[in-house]
Design a protein that fits this description.
Strand content: 35-45%
Low-confidence stretches: 7-14
Radius of gyration: 16 Å
Shape: globular
Number of strands: 12
Number of helices: 0
Distance between the termini: 31 Å
Helix content: under 10%
Length: about 170
Protein backbone atom coordinates (compact mmCIF):
# COMPACT_ATOMS: atom_id res chain seq x y z
CA UNK A 1 0.00 0.00 0.00
CA UNK A 2 1.32 3.43 -0.95
CA UNK A 3 0.12 6.62 0.74
CA UNK A 4 0.13 9.96 -1.06
CA UNK A 5 -1.17 13.34 0.05
CA UNK A 6 -2.93 16.06 -1.92
CA UNK A 7 -4.11 19.40 -0.52
CA UNK A 8 -7.06 21.46 -1.71
CA UNK A 9 -7.70 24.91 -0.28
CA UNK A 10 -5.72 27.88 0.94
CA UNK A 11 -2.07 27.49 1.81
CA UNK A 12 -0.98 28.09 5.38
CA UNK A 13 -4.34 27.28 6.96
CA UNK A 14 -4.60 24.27 9.25
CA UNK A 15 -6.41 21.30 7.71
CA UNK A 16 -10.06 21.20 8.73
CA UNK A 17 -11.19 18.06 6.93
CA UNK A 18 -9.44 15.01 5.52
CA UNK A 19 -10.82 12.32 3.26
CA UNK A 20 -8.78 9.19 2.74
CA UNK A 21 -9.40 7.66 -0.67
CA UNK A 22 -8.54 4.00 -1.10
CA UNK A 23 -7.94 3.24 -4.76
CA UNK A 24 -8.25 -0.42 -5.76
CA UNK A 25 -6.16 -0.80 -8.89
CA UNK A 26 -5.64 -3.46 -11.56
CA UNK A 27 -2.33 -5.10 -12.36
CA UNK A 28 -0.36 -3.66 -15.29
CA UNK A 29 -2.46 -4.13 -18.45
CA UNK A 30 -2.45 -3.67 -22.22
CA UNK A 31 -4.57 -0.88 -23.69
CA UNK A 32 -4.49 1.24 -26.82
CA UNK A 33 -1.40 -0.56 -28.15
CA UNK A 34 0.69 0.02 -25.00
CA UNK A 35 1.24 -1.63 -21.65
CA UNK A 36 -0.05 0.58 -18.83
CA UNK A 37 2.57 0.16 -16.11
CA UNK A 38 2.09 3.27 -13.95
CA UNK A 39 -0.71 5.14 -12.17
CA UNK A 40 -1.10 8.74 -10.99
CA UNK A 41 -3.95 10.63 -9.35
CA UNK A 42 -5.42 14.11 -9.80
CA UNK A 43 -8.06 15.86 -7.67
CA UNK A 44 -10.25 18.95 -8.03
CA UNK A 45 -13.35 20.36 -6.40
CA UNK A 46 -16.17 22.49 -7.73
CA UNK A 47 -19.39 22.46 -9.63
CA UNK A 48 -18.05 22.24 -13.17
CA UNK A 49 -17.38 18.94 -14.87
CA UNK A 50 -14.10 19.78 -16.54
CA UNK A 51 -12.70 16.28 -16.88
CA UNK A 52 -11.59 16.90 -20.47
CA UNK A 53 -9.16 19.64 -19.39
CA UNK A 54 -5.54 18.95 -18.47
CA UNK A 55 -5.13 18.28 -14.72
CA UNK A 56 -1.88 18.36 -12.80
CA UNK A 57 -1.34 14.92 -11.28
CA UNK A 58 0.61 13.39 -8.42
CA UNK A 59 3.90 11.62 -9.04
CA UNK A 60 3.27 8.24 -10.60
CA UNK A 61 3.85 4.87 -9.01
CA UNK A 62 4.20 1.51 -10.74
CA UNK A 63 1.34 -0.92 -11.16
CA UNK A 64 2.31 -4.40 -10.03
CA UNK A 65 1.89 -7.85 -11.52
CA UNK A 66 -1.28 -8.29 -9.45
CA UNK A 67 -4.06 -5.92 -8.31
CA UNK A 68 -3.02 -3.45 -5.61
CA UNK A 69 -4.23 -0.65 -3.33
CA UNK A 70 -3.05 2.96 -3.08
CA UNK A 71 -4.27 5.34 -0.38
CA UNK A 72 -4.43 9.08 -1.00
CA UNK A 73 -5.24 11.55 1.80
CA UNK A 74 -6.83 14.78 0.60
CA UNK A 75 -7.10 17.77 2.93
CA UNK A 76 -9.54 20.66 2.59
CA UNK A 77 -9.52 23.94 4.49
CA UNK A 78 -12.54 25.55 2.84
CA UNK A 79 -15.57 24.88 0.60
CA UNK A 80 -16.31 21.60 2.34
CA UNK A 81 -19.68 21.08 0.66
CA UNK A 82 -18.24 20.79 -2.85
CA UNK A 83 -18.05 17.57 -4.79
CA UNK A 84 -14.59 16.05 -5.11
CA UNK A 85 -13.57 15.07 -8.63
CA UNK A 86 -10.83 12.51 -9.17
CA UNK A 87 -8.94 11.25 -12.18
CA UNK A 88 -7.05 7.99 -12.04
CA UNK A 89 -4.43 8.11 -14.81
CA UNK A 90 -2.99 4.89 -16.22
CA UNK A 91 0.22 5.39 -18.20
CA UNK A 92 2.84 3.47 -20.15
CA UNK A 93 5.76 5.08 -18.31
CA UNK A 94 6.73 6.88 -15.10
CA UNK A 95 6.26 10.32 -16.73
CA UNK A 96 2.49 9.69 -16.40
CA UNK A 97 0.80 12.96 -17.35
CA UNK A 98 -2.79 13.75 -18.19
CA UNK A 99 -2.85 13.75 -21.98
CA UNK A 100 -2.42 11.63 -25.11
CA UNK A 101 -1.41 8.03 -24.45
CA UNK A 102 -3.00 8.08 -20.99
CA UNK A 103 -6.09 6.09 -20.10
CA UNK A 104 -8.10 7.86 -17.41
CA UNK A 105 -11.02 6.90 -15.21
CA UNK A 106 -13.13 9.66 -13.67
CA UNK A 107 -14.95 9.79 -10.34
CA UNK A 108 -17.13 12.28 -8.46
CA UNK A 109 -17.48 11.89 -4.70
CA UNK A 110 -20.42 13.72 -3.15
CA UNK A 111 -19.78 15.55 0.15
CA UNK A 112 -16.58 13.78 1.18
CA UNK A 113 -15.36 16.61 3.44
CA UNK A 114 -16.79 17.20 6.92
CA UNK A 115 -15.46 20.04 9.08
CA UNK A 116 -13.22 18.64 11.82
CA UNK A 117 -13.74 15.04 10.65
CA UNK A 118 -11.73 12.29 9.03
CA UNK A 119 -13.72 10.46 6.34
CA UNK A 120 -12.88 7.71 3.88
CA UNK A 121 -14.13 6.25 0.62
CA UNK A 122 -13.15 3.39 -1.68
CA UNK A 123 -12.73 3.87 -5.44
CA UNK A 124 -12.56 0.57 -7.29
CA UNK A 125 -10.80 0.61 -10.66
CA UNK A 126 -9.56 -2.97 -10.36
CA UNK A 127 -12.15 -4.52 -12.71
CA UNK A 128 -12.11 -1.75 -15.31
CA UNK A 129 -12.34 -2.42 -19.02
CA UNK A 130 -8.84 -1.50 -20.23
CA UNK A 131 -10.06 -0.50 -23.68
CA UNK A 132 -12.61 2.03 -22.46
CA UNK A 133 -11.60 5.39 -21.00
CA UNK A 134 -14.16 7.42 -19.07
CA UNK A 135 -16.53 9.71 -20.91
CA UNK A 136 -18.67 10.31 -17.81
CA UNK A 137 -17.58 10.13 -14.18
CA UNK A 138 -18.66 7.35 -11.87
CA UNK A 139 -20.57 9.03 -9.04
CA UNK A 140 -19.96 7.85 -5.49
CA UNK A 141 -22.83 9.14 -3.39
CA UNK A 142 -22.47 10.74 0.03
CA UNK A 143 -23.94 7.64 1.67
CA UNK A 144 -20.85 5.67 0.61
CA UNK A 145 -18.42 8.01 2.37
CA UNK A 146 -17.46 6.54 5.77
CA UNK A 147 -16.91 8.74 8.79
CA UNK A 148 -18.33 10.31 11.94
CA UNK A 149 -18.51 6.99 13.77
CA UNK A 150 -20.29 5.20 10.94
CA UNK A 151 -20.39 1.46 11.34
CA UNK A 152 -19.73 -0.71 8.28
CA UNK A 153 -22.57 -0.44 5.78
CA UNK A 154 -25.41 -2.87 6.29
CA UNK A 155 -26.23 -3.00 2.59
CA UNK A 156 -24.93 -2.03 -0.83
CA UNK A 157 -28.07 0.04 -1.31
CA UNK A 158 -28.02 2.43 1.66
CA UNK A 159 -24.29 2.48 2.37
CA UNK A 160 -23.58 4.33 5.62
CA UNK A 161 -26.89 6.24 5.58
CA UNK A 162 -30.00 5.08 7.38
CA UNK A 163 -33.14 4.27 5.40
CA UNK A 164 -34.20 7.94 5.47
CA UNK A 165 -30.91 8.94 3.78
CA UNK A 166 -29.39 10.51 6.90
CA UNK A 167 -25.59 10.15 7.11
CA UNK A 168 -23.86 9.79 10.52
CA UNK A 169 -22.06 13.12 9.78
CA UNK A 170 -25.36 15.02 9.29
Amino acid sequence: MVALALALGCGGAPPNAIVEVEFRLPAAFDAAGATMTHVAFAARRGSTRDFMEFWSASASSPLGASPSVRVVSIEATERFEETLRLKVLFCADAACTDGPGTLSKWYEIEEPFRVGEFTSVTVDSSAMDPEVASTEPEVIGRCFVAGCGAVPPASDITGFCDLSGRHPCD
